[in-house]
Write a structure and sequence with these properties.
Layout (H helix, E strand, L loop, with lengths): L18 H5 L5 H26 L2
Amino acid sequence: MQGPDDTDRDKSGRIVETALEARQGELGPSVLMLLGVSVGLAVILMVMTWMIFFRT
C-alpha cells in the first residue's frame, strides 16, 4: 500500500522502512551549521571561563 507521499505502508497505515532507511539521517547544511555554531560557542565560553577564573 502506497501513501500520498509514496512511502511504503502496511495494511494499518504505518510506514514500513528497511533498517538502513530508518537509520539514515540528514547531514545537510543546517546540521553542519548547527555543529559549527555550537562548537564555536563552547570554545568561546571555555575561553571566557578561563580568563575570568584561572588567569593569574
